[in-house]
Amino acid sequence: MAEESFPVVEQPMTAEQWKHVTRGIGDGILDEGGFPYNLTGFSNATNTATLKVSTTTGTAAAIVAGHYHKMDADMQLSFPSVASRTTYYVMLQYDPLSAEMPVKVVVSTSAESSQGKVNLHLWNVTRNANELLTDATVRNIRPRVSTTATYASMADLPQAHKVLWGSVAFIHGGRSSDNATIVMSMNDASGNWYWKTIYDPNAEPDWITINDTTNAQSGTSGYTKAIQRDGSVRKMRGRFNRGSGGALYTASSTAGYLVANLQPQDLPAAASYHWVWGGGGGVLCYVNVSRVNAEVRLHVASGSCSYVDLGTIEWTV
């Protein structure tokens, strides 16, 4: 057959055809909240654990190879003791030869894929010889599928709990801009749902606090010493002093004062010098952002001061 097309009007599809029609949906859990397909309640007495339905909906549902699976009650699964290190694979397995139950929960020591089987890994449980089940290594996999949609504004989003966990929404106001904010639906440990922004082109990157040094300690006023990373641009801000005791920064210190050590990703393309303010004395100071020494060091031009404010200095890496 050179080519094929389906579905054909008024004709049924085979299971194989249906699998291909729905292939773009993907394989994964349909997560409505409440942690469906959670594996918990490990028992050393019975060598079992419980595969749970959602704590909020009372069900668990998933798609595997275009076929639907649903649980409406918890299932007890067995993980017998072993003579040597063994991994149990907890899977939803699609078996095209199983006409009555094409997708079912399987616990196996191998991820068999013969005769067209498709496996959706939920958990791996690895046991060693003479090891209690509660000491086994448990790996949570649980892939989930969700929707993607585009909205004109944040105000147009549906309530987060009305969509599947992990649903992604692009916020785009129209053709006038190429920018798009991206948000994802999720819930916290208390079951509260919300849309979390995972990308906003207009958002300012986070300021990351820089550790104090002996001679540059963040005070109680002004910004705490911090660095901002935005592509190849680095910015630093902060107000600091020499700590308790009122010690001054002075011009007589020709070596200067260590303000911060730089991470490898923050080294400037070349040495960078910046004028900064010396407060409590009103003197000019400058900082040297050194690529060679991987540090930021303060120098006082003349006189002395009790604290320094960087304002915002900037360099390119």
**Distance N to C terminus:** 58 Å
CATH architecture of the largest domain: Sandwich
Helix content: under 10%
Q: Give the overall silhouette.
A: elongated
Total strands: 25
Structural descriptors:
317 residues; mainly beta; Triple-stranded beta-helix; Immunoglobulin-like; 3 domains; four-stranded antiparallel β-sheet; 1 helix; 2% helix; 44% strand; elongated
Description:
The mean pLDDT is 91. The strands form six sheets. Strands 15, 16, 17, 18, 20, 21, 22, 23 and 25 form a nine-stranded antiparallel beta sheet that branches. The chain has a four-stranded antiparallel beta sheet with strand order 8-7-9-10, with no helix packed on it. With 317 residues, it is mainly beta. It contains one helix and 25 strands. The chain folds into three domains: 15-140, Triple-stranded beta-helix; 148-199, no CATH class; 207-316, Immunoglobulin-like (Sandwich), CATH 2.60.40.2460. It starts with 14 loop residues before the first helix and ends with a strand.
